[in-house]
Write a structure and sequence with these properties.
Blueprint lengths: L1 H60 L6 H30 L6 H34 L1 H7 L2 H18 L2 H5 E7 L5 E7 L4 H52 L23 H14 L4 H45 L1 H8 L2 H11 L1 H11 L2 H15 L3 H13 L1 H7 L9 H5 L4
Antiparallel strand pairs: 1-2
Helix pairs in contact: 1-2, 1-11, 1-12, 2-3, 2-5, 2-11, 2-12, 3-4, 3-5, 3-7, 7-9, 9-10, 9-11, 9-15, 13-14
Protein backbone atom coordinates (compact mmCIF):
# COMPACT_ATOMS: atom_id res chain seq x y z
CA UNK A 1 0.00 0.00 0.00
CA UNK A 2 2.79 2.42 0.88
CA UNK A 3 4.49 1.59 -2.41
CA UNK A 4 1.26 2.24 -4.35
CA UNK A 5 0.70 5.50 -2.51
CA UNK A 6 4.27 6.60 -3.23
CA UNK A 7 3.92 5.77 -6.94
CA UNK A 8 0.67 7.72 -7.13
CA UNK A 9 2.34 10.71 -5.48
CA UNK A 10 5.21 10.54 -7.96
CA UNK A 11 2.72 10.35 -10.86
CA UNK A 12 0.84 13.36 -9.54
CA UNK A 13 4.10 15.30 -9.19
CA UNK A 14 5.13 14.38 -12.71
CA UNK A 15 1.77 15.37 -14.17
CA UNK A 16 1.78 18.68 -12.27
CA UNK A 17 5.32 19.45 -13.45
CA UNK A 18 4.29 18.64 -17.02
CA UNK A 19 1.27 20.91 -16.73
CA UNK A 20 3.45 23.63 -15.22
CA UNK A 21 5.94 23.38 -18.09
CA UNK A 22 3.12 23.41 -20.65
CA UNK A 23 1.64 26.49 -19.01
CA UNK A 24 5.02 28.23 -19.01
CA UNK A 25 5.48 27.28 -22.66
CA UNK A 26 2.11 28.77 -23.57
CA UNK A 27 2.95 31.94 -21.66
CA UNK A 28 6.28 32.25 -23.45
CA UNK A 29 4.62 31.75 -26.83
CA UNK A 30 1.97 34.28 -25.87
CA UNK A 31 4.65 36.79 -24.85
CA UNK A 32 6.46 36.23 -28.15
CA UNK A 33 3.22 36.72 -30.07
CA UNK A 34 2.49 39.91 -28.15
CA UNK A 35 5.96 41.26 -28.88
CA UNK A 36 5.60 40.54 -32.60
CA UNK A 37 2.12 42.06 -32.71
CA UNK A 38 3.29 45.20 -30.90
CA UNK A 39 6.24 45.64 -33.28
CA UNK A 40 4.11 45.17 -36.39
CA UNK A 41 1.34 47.43 -35.15
CA UNK A 42 3.87 50.13 -34.24
CA UNK A 43 5.55 49.89 -37.65
CA UNK A 44 2.29 50.14 -39.59
CA UNK A 45 1.07 52.93 -37.30
CA UNK A 46 4.10 55.19 -37.74
CA UNK A 47 4.39 54.54 -41.49
CA UNK A 48 0.70 55.30 -41.98
CA UNK A 49 0.75 58.46 -39.87
CA UNK A 50 3.94 59.74 -41.51
CA UNK A 51 2.82 58.94 -45.07
CA UNK A 52 -0.68 60.39 -44.77
CA UNK A 53 0.50 63.51 -42.95
CA UNK A 54 3.06 64.05 -45.69
CA UNK A 55 0.36 63.78 -48.34
CA UNK A 56 -1.89 66.23 -46.48
CA UNK A 57 0.93 68.77 -46.16
CA UNK A 58 2.07 68.50 -49.80
CA UNK A 59 -1.44 68.71 -51.27
CA UNK A 60 -2.36 71.59 -48.97
CA UNK A 61 0.79 73.70 -49.43
CA UNK A 62 1.39 73.18 -53.15
CA UNK A 63 -1.27 75.06 -55.14
CA UNK A 64 -0.29 73.35 -58.39
CA UNK A 65 -1.25 69.99 -56.89
CA UNK A 66 -4.84 71.04 -56.17
CA UNK A 67 -6.46 69.01 -58.94
CA UNK A 68 -9.67 66.99 -58.97
CA UNK A 69 -8.02 63.65 -58.30
CA UNK A 70 -5.73 65.11 -55.63
CA UNK A 71 -8.81 66.49 -53.86
CA UNK A 72 -10.07 62.91 -53.50
CA UNK A 73 -6.57 61.81 -52.46
CA UNK A 74 -6.61 64.45 -49.72
CA UNK A 75 -9.90 63.07 -48.41
CA UNK A 76 -8.45 59.55 -48.60
CA UNK A 77 -5.37 60.62 -46.62
CA UNK A 78 -7.52 62.22 -43.90
CA UNK A 79 -9.72 59.13 -43.61
CA UNK A 80 -6.70 56.80 -43.49
CA UNK A 81 -5.16 58.98 -40.80
CA UNK A 82 -8.38 58.71 -38.80
CA UNK A 83 -8.37 54.96 -39.38
CA UNK A 84 -4.95 54.38 -37.84
CA UNK A 85 -5.37 56.92 -35.01
CA UNK A 86 -8.80 55.78 -33.84
CA UNK A 87 -8.55 52.09 -34.69
CA UNK A 88 -5.07 50.74 -34.10
CA UNK A 89 -4.42 51.83 -30.48
CA UNK A 90 -7.94 50.91 -29.36
CA UNK A 91 -7.59 47.50 -31.00
CA UNK A 92 -4.06 46.66 -29.89
CA UNK A 93 -4.16 47.76 -26.22
CA UNK A 94 -7.36 45.85 -25.24
CA UNK A 95 -6.04 42.81 -27.12
CA UNK A 96 -2.79 42.83 -25.12
CA UNK A 97 -4.29 43.71 -21.71
CA UNK A 98 -7.46 41.64 -22.18
CA UNK A 99 -9.29 44.69 -20.85
CA UNK A 100 -10.89 47.78 -22.43
CA UNK A 101 -9.52 50.48 -20.13
CA UNK A 102 -10.89 53.57 -21.88
CA UNK A 103 -14.40 53.70 -20.39
CA UNK A 104 -17.97 53.43 -21.62
CA UNK A 105 -18.09 56.78 -23.46
CA UNK A 106 -14.90 56.05 -25.40
CA UNK A 107 -16.35 52.65 -26.29
CA UNK A 108 -19.16 54.37 -28.17
CA UNK A 109 -16.99 57.13 -29.66
CA UNK A 110 -14.21 54.83 -30.83
CA UNK A 111 -16.51 52.33 -32.54
CA UNK A 112 -18.34 55.18 -34.27
CA UNK A 113 -15.12 56.80 -35.52
CA UNK A 114 -13.81 53.41 -36.63
CA UNK A 115 -16.85 52.85 -38.82
CA UNK A 116 -16.74 56.39 -40.24
CA UNK A 117 -13.04 56.25 -41.13
CA UNK A 118 -13.35 52.84 -42.83
CA UNK A 119 -16.41 53.98 -44.79
CA UNK A 120 -14.82 57.23 -45.98
CA UNK A 121 -11.64 55.44 -46.99
CA UNK A 122 -13.59 52.92 -49.08
CA UNK A 123 -15.87 55.55 -50.64
CA UNK A 124 -12.81 57.67 -51.52
CA UNK A 125 -11.20 54.73 -53.30
CA UNK A 126 -14.39 54.22 -55.32
CA UNK A 127 -14.61 57.94 -56.16
CA UNK A 128 -10.99 57.94 -57.36
CA UNK A 129 -11.64 54.89 -59.55
CA UNK A 130 -14.74 56.48 -61.15
CA UNK A 131 -12.96 59.81 -61.65
CA UNK A 132 -10.00 58.14 -63.34
CA UNK A 133 -12.29 56.09 -65.54
CA UNK A 134 -14.15 59.19 -66.70
CA UNK A 135 -10.97 61.21 -67.25
CA UNK A 136 -9.22 58.52 -69.31
CA UNK A 137 -12.09 56.74 -71.07
CA UNK A 138 -14.41 59.74 -71.60
CA UNK A 139 -12.03 62.71 -71.55
CA UNK A 140 -14.17 65.19 -73.49
CA UNK A 141 -17.35 64.55 -71.51
CA UNK A 142 -15.51 64.49 -68.18
CA UNK A 143 -14.11 68.00 -68.70
CA UNK A 144 -17.61 69.41 -68.40
CA UNK A 145 -18.31 68.15 -64.89
CA UNK A 146 -14.93 67.20 -63.41
CA UNK A 147 -14.20 70.33 -61.43
CA UNK A 148 -12.94 70.92 -57.94
CA UNK A 149 -16.32 72.20 -56.82
CA UNK A 150 -17.87 68.93 -58.01
CA UNK A 151 -15.16 67.00 -56.16
CA UNK A 152 -15.92 68.97 -52.98
CA UNK A 153 -19.60 68.07 -53.29
CA UNK A 154 -18.81 64.39 -53.81
CA UNK A 155 -16.45 64.35 -50.81
CA UNK A 156 -19.04 66.10 -48.61
CA UNK A 157 -21.63 63.53 -49.72
CA UNK A 158 -19.31 60.61 -48.89
CA UNK A 159 -18.56 61.99 -45.43
CA UNK A 160 -22.25 62.65 -44.74
CA UNK A 161 -23.22 59.18 -45.97
CA UNK A 162 -20.55 57.56 -43.76
CA UNK A 163 -21.73 59.54 -40.72
CA UNK A 164 -25.35 58.48 -41.30
CA UNK A 165 -24.64 54.84 -42.12
CA UNK A 166 -22.55 54.28 -38.98
CA UNK A 167 -25.10 55.71 -36.52
CA UNK A 168 -26.05 52.18 -35.25
CA UNK A 169 -22.53 51.66 -33.87
CA UNK A 170 -22.71 54.07 -30.90
CA UNK A 171 -26.24 52.84 -30.19
CA UNK A 172 -25.35 49.14 -29.90
CA UNK A 173 -21.87 49.59 -28.35
CA UNK A 174 -21.75 48.87 -24.61
CA UNK A 175 -19.05 48.25 -22.02
CA UNK A 176 -19.46 44.87 -20.32
CA UNK A 177 -17.69 43.62 -17.19
CA UNK A 178 -16.47 40.05 -16.74
CA UNK A 179 -14.44 38.31 -13.99
CA UNK A 180 -10.88 37.19 -14.61
CA UNK A 181 -9.32 33.96 -13.33
CA UNK A 182 -7.34 36.00 -10.76
CA UNK A 183 -10.59 37.33 -9.25
CA UNK A 184 -10.22 40.78 -10.84
CA UNK A 185 -12.77 42.51 -13.06
CA UNK A 186 -12.08 43.36 -16.69
CA UNK A 187 -14.12 45.15 -19.32
CA UNK A 188 -14.99 44.51 -22.93
CA UNK A 189 -16.46 46.85 -25.56
CA UNK A 190 -19.14 44.79 -27.27
CA UNK A 191 -22.04 45.29 -29.68
CA UNK A 192 -25.39 44.34 -28.16
CA UNK A 193 -28.00 43.85 -30.83
CA UNK A 194 -31.70 43.47 -29.87
CA UNK A 195 -32.15 40.38 -32.05
CA UNK A 196 -29.77 38.11 -33.93
CA UNK A 197 -31.41 38.94 -37.27
CA UNK A 198 -30.52 42.62 -36.86
CA UNK A 199 -26.87 41.74 -36.24
CA UNK A 200 -26.73 39.42 -39.23
CA UNK A 201 -28.43 41.95 -41.50
CA UNK A 202 -26.03 44.68 -40.38
CA UNK A 203 -22.86 42.73 -41.15
CA UNK A 204 -24.23 41.51 -44.48
CA UNK A 205 -25.02 45.14 -45.32
CA UNK A 206 -21.46 46.19 -44.44
CA UNK A 207 -20.10 43.32 -46.51
CA UNK A 208 -22.03 44.62 -49.52
CA UNK A 209 -21.62 48.41 -49.29
CA UNK A 210 -18.04 48.50 -47.95
CA UNK A 211 -16.46 45.53 -49.69
CA UNK A 212 -18.37 43.67 -52.41
CA UNK A 213 -19.88 46.60 -54.34
CA UNK A 214 -16.76 48.86 -54.04
CA UNK A 215 -14.57 45.94 -55.07
CA UNK A 216 -16.67 45.26 -58.17
CA UNK A 217 -16.80 48.96 -59.11
CA UNK A 218 -13.03 49.34 -58.75
CA UNK A 219 -12.36 46.15 -60.68
CA UNK A 220 -14.61 47.18 -63.57
CA UNK A 221 -13.32 50.78 -63.68
CA UNK A 222 -9.65 49.86 -63.56
CA UNK A 223 -10.24 46.98 -65.97
CA UNK A 224 -11.73 49.37 -68.54
CA UNK A 225 -8.89 51.83 -67.95
CA UNK A 226 -6.34 49.06 -68.48
CA UNK A 227 -8.08 48.05 -71.69
CA UNK A 228 -8.01 51.65 -72.90
CA UNK A 229 -4.33 52.03 -72.08
CA UNK A 230 -3.58 48.72 -73.77
CA UNK A 231 -5.35 49.97 -76.88
CA UNK A 232 -3.21 53.09 -76.70
CA UNK A 233 -0.09 50.96 -76.50
CA UNK A 234 -1.14 48.97 -79.56
CA UNK A 235 -2.01 52.17 -81.42
CA UNK A 236 1.34 53.83 -80.69
CA UNK A 237 3.27 50.69 -81.57
CA UNK A 238 1.41 50.47 -84.87
CA UNK A 239 1.94 54.18 -85.48
CA UNK A 240 5.64 53.80 -84.76
CA UNK A 241 5.89 50.88 -87.19
CA UNK A 242 4.08 52.81 -89.92
CA UNK A 243 6.31 55.83 -89.32
CA UNK A 244 9.37 53.64 -89.74
CA UNK A 245 8.01 52.30 -93.02
CA UNK A 246 7.35 55.83 -94.28
CA UNK A 247 10.85 56.95 -93.37
CA UNK A 248 12.29 54.05 -95.35
CA UNK A 249 10.32 55.15 -98.44
CA UNK A 250 7.88 52.25 -98.34
CA UNK A 251 4.36 52.66 -99.63
CA UNK A 252 1.43 50.87 -98.13
CA UNK A 253 -2.31 50.63 -98.69
CA UNK A 254 -4.38 52.11 -95.89
CA UNK A 255 -7.78 50.67 -95.04
CA UNK A 256 -9.90 53.31 -93.35
CA UNK A 257 -12.27 51.96 -90.76
CA UNK A 258 -10.21 49.02 -89.58
CA UNK A 259 -11.00 47.29 -86.34
CA UNK A 260 -8.28 49.07 -84.39
CA UNK A 261 -9.25 52.50 -83.18
CA UNK A 262 -9.81 55.18 -85.81
CA UNK A 263 -8.49 53.22 -88.76
CA UNK A 264 -6.51 55.90 -90.64
CA UNK A 265 -3.31 56.41 -88.68
CA UNK A 266 -0.73 57.68 -91.20
CA UNK A 267 -1.01 59.86 -94.27
CA UNK A 268 1.26 58.00 -96.66
CA UNK A 269 2.92 60.25 -99.22
CA UNK A 270 4.56 59.56 -102.53
CA UNK A 271 8.29 58.83 -102.50
CA UNK A 272 9.18 62.17 -104.12
CA UNK A 273 7.07 64.29 -101.81
CA UNK A 274 8.22 62.15 -98.93
CA UNK A 275 11.83 62.85 -99.78
CA UNK A 276 11.21 66.58 -100.10
CA UNK A 277 9.29 66.74 -96.84
CA UNK A 278 12.01 64.75 -95.09
CA UNK A 279 14.65 67.18 -96.39
CA UNK A 280 12.65 70.22 -95.28
CA UNK A 281 11.99 68.63 -91.91
CA UNK A 282 15.67 67.91 -91.48
CA UNK A 283 16.48 71.56 -92.24
CA UNK A 284 13.84 72.99 -89.93
CA UNK A 285 14.03 70.48 -87.08
CA UNK A 286 17.32 68.64 -87.18
CA UNK A 287 16.95 67.25 -83.67
CA UNK A 288 13.23 66.60 -83.46
CA UNK A 289 13.16 62.90 -84.32
CA UNK A 290 15.13 61.56 -81.38
CA UNK A 291 13.29 63.41 -78.56
CA UNK A 292 9.98 62.45 -80.14
CA UNK A 293 11.03 58.82 -80.27
CA UNK A 294 12.21 58.95 -76.68
CA UNK A 295 8.94 60.56 -75.57
CA UNK A 296 6.92 57.87 -77.38
CA UNK A 297 8.93 55.11 -75.71
CA UNK A 298 8.48 56.78 -72.33
CA UNK A 299 4.72 57.01 -72.85
CA UNK A 300 4.51 53.32 -73.71
CA UNK A 301 6.50 52.34 -70.63
CA UNK A 302 4.43 54.67 -68.45
CA UNK A 303 1.17 53.14 -69.65
CA UNK A 304 2.50 49.65 -69.00
CA UNK A 305 3.49 50.69 -65.48
CA UNK A 306 0.05 52.17 -64.86
CA UNK A 307 -1.67 48.96 -66.00
CA UNK A 308 0.44 46.97 -63.55
CA UNK A 309 -0.27 49.51 -60.82
CA UNK A 310 -4.04 49.31 -61.38
CA UNK A 311 -3.89 45.54 -61.00
CA UNK A 312 -1.94 45.98 -57.76
CA UNK A 313 -4.56 48.42 -56.44
CA UNK A 314 -7.43 45.95 -56.91
CA UNK A 315 -5.44 42.99 -55.55
CA UNK A 316 -4.36 44.89 -52.42
CA UNK A 317 -7.91 46.09 -51.75
CA UNK A 318 -9.25 42.53 -51.74
CA UNK A 319 -6.23 41.21 -49.86
CA UNK A 320 -6.46 43.78 -47.06
CA UNK A 321 -10.22 43.82 -46.50
CA UNK A 322 -11.59 40.42 -47.52
CA UNK A 323 -10.47 38.51 -44.36
CA UNK A 324 -11.96 41.09 -41.99
CA UNK A 325 -15.37 41.32 -43.65
CA UNK A 326 -15.61 37.56 -44.07
CA UNK A 327 -14.79 37.03 -40.39
CA UNK A 328 -17.29 39.69 -39.25
CA UNK A 329 -19.99 37.97 -41.29
CA UNK A 330 -18.96 34.60 -39.85
CA UNK A 331 -19.18 35.96 -36.30
CA UNK A 332 -22.63 37.38 -37.03
CA UNK A 333 -23.99 33.94 -37.94
CA UNK A 334 -21.89 31.69 -35.67
CA UNK A 335 -20.15 33.68 -32.96
CA UNK A 336 -19.01 30.76 -30.82
CA UNK A 337 -17.11 28.86 -33.51
CA UNK A 338 -15.59 32.09 -34.84
CA UNK A 339 -14.27 33.02 -31.39
CA UNK A 340 -12.79 29.56 -30.85
CA UNK A 341 -11.00 29.62 -34.19
CA UNK A 342 -9.85 33.25 -34.28
CA UNK A 343 -9.51 34.56 -30.73
CA UNK A 344 -6.18 36.05 -29.72
CA UNK A 345 -3.33 36.27 -32.22
CA UNK A 346 -5.23 35.35 -35.45
CA UNK A 347 -7.81 38.12 -35.11
CA UNK A 348 -5.07 40.62 -34.21
CA UNK A 349 -3.20 39.84 -37.42
CA UNK A 350 -6.41 40.04 -39.47
CA UNK A 351 -7.09 43.51 -38.08
CA UNK A 352 -3.47 44.44 -38.80
CA UNK A 353 -3.91 43.35 -42.41
CA UNK A 354 -6.87 45.70 -42.82
CA UNK A 355 -4.93 48.57 -41.23
CA UNK A 356 -2.12 47.97 -43.73
CA UNK A 357 -4.35 49.54 -46.39
CA UNK A 358 -3.81 52.93 -44.70
CA UNK A 359 -0.07 52.35 -45.12
CA UNK A 360 -0.06 51.22 -48.76
CA UNK A 361 -2.60 53.76 -50.06
CA UNK A 362 -0.14 56.70 -49.81
CA UNK A 363 2.52 54.64 -51.57
CA UNK A 364 0.28 53.52 -54.44
CA UNK A 365 -1.72 56.67 -55.05
CA UNK A 366 0.87 59.39 -54.35
CA UNK A 367 4.46 58.31 -53.88
CA UNK A 368 4.39 56.29 -57.15
CA UNK A 369 3.27 59.48 -58.93
CA UNK A 370 6.18 61.34 -60.53
CA UNK A 371 4.52 64.70 -60.15
CA UNK A 372 3.82 64.18 -56.47
CA UNK A 373 7.40 63.07 -55.80
CA UNK A 374 8.78 66.14 -57.52
CA UNK A 375 6.40 68.41 -55.58
CA UNK A 376 7.55 66.73 -52.36
CA UNK A 377 11.22 67.21 -53.22
CA UNK A 378 10.58 70.80 -54.26
CA UNK A 379 8.85 71.53 -50.94
CA UNK A 380 11.73 70.07 -48.91
CA UNK A 381 14.38 71.79 -51.01
CA UNK A 382 12.62 75.14 -50.72
CA UNK A 383 12.32 74.70 -46.97
CA UNK A 384 16.01 73.82 -46.74
CA UNK A 385 17.23 76.89 -48.63
CA UNK A 386 18.09 77.67 -52.25
CA UNK A 387 15.80 75.89 -54.66
CA UNK A 388 16.20 77.71 -57.97
CA UNK A 389 18.18 74.91 -59.55
CA UNK A 390 15.74 72.29 -58.30
CA UNK A 391 12.77 74.24 -59.65
CA UNK A 392 14.43 74.27 -63.07
CA UNK A 393 14.91 70.51 -62.87
CA UNK A 394 11.36 70.18 -61.55
CA UNK A 395 9.87 71.93 -64.62
CA UNK A 396 12.04 69.87 -66.96
CA UNK A 397 11.02 66.67 -65.18
CA UNK A 398 7.34 67.55 -65.45
CA UNK A 399 7.71 67.98 -69.21
CA UNK A 400 9.55 64.68 -69.51
CA UNK A 401 7.11 62.78 -67.36
CA UNK A 402 3.75 64.04 -68.53
CA UNK A 403 2.86 60.52 -69.52
CA UNK A 404 2.91 59.38 -65.89
CA UNK A 405 0.50 62.12 -64.90
CA UNK A 406 -1.71 61.62 -67.93
CA UNK A 407 -1.94 57.86 -67.50
CA UNK A 408 -2.52 57.99 -63.77
CA UNK A 409 -5.08 60.74 -64.07
CA UNK A 410 -4.13 63.31 -61.38
CA UNK A 411 -4.66 66.27 -63.73
CA UNK A 412 -6.15 64.99 -66.95
CA UNK A 413 -7.70 68.34 -67.87
CA UNK A 414 -4.32 70.07 -68.16
CA UNK A 415 -2.73 67.75 -70.73
CA UNK A 416 -3.62 66.53 -74.19
CA UNK A 417 -5.00 63.03 -74.18
CA UNK A 418 -3.11 61.95 -77.34
CA UNK A 419 -3.66 58.28 -77.97
CA UNK A 420 -6.00 57.72 -75.03
CA UNK A 421 -8.59 60.23 -76.26
CA UNK A 422 -8.47 59.04 -79.87
CA UNK A 423 -9.47 55.50 -78.96
CA UNK A 424 -13.03 56.53 -78.05
CA UNK A 425 -15.03 55.48 -75.02
CA UNK A 426 -14.43 52.33 -73.05
Amino acid sequence: DNVDELSRMRADCNSSSINRRALLGRRERGDDDHTLIILLYSLIFFLSVFGNLLIIVVLTVNKRMRTVTNTFLLSLAVSDLMLVVFCMPFTLIPSILKDFIFGAIMCKIVTYLMGISVSISTFSLVAIAIERYSAICNPLKSRVWQTRSHAYRVIAATWLMAIIIMIPYPVVSHLDSFPRPDNTTAHQCRHKWPVAVAKQSWYVLLLLILFAIPGVVMSVAYGLISRELYRGIQFEMGHKKDSTDVKNGLTSTMSCGSDDGDGCYVNVQRPYSLEMSAMSASVKRPRADRPRSNTSEAKLEAKKRVIRMLVVIVVLFFLCWMPLYCINTWRAFDDNSAKKALSGTPIAFIHLLSYTSACVNPIIYCFMNTRFRKALLAMFSCCAGPCRHHRRRHRRGLRDNEEDVTAMGPSMSKFSYTTVSTMGTC
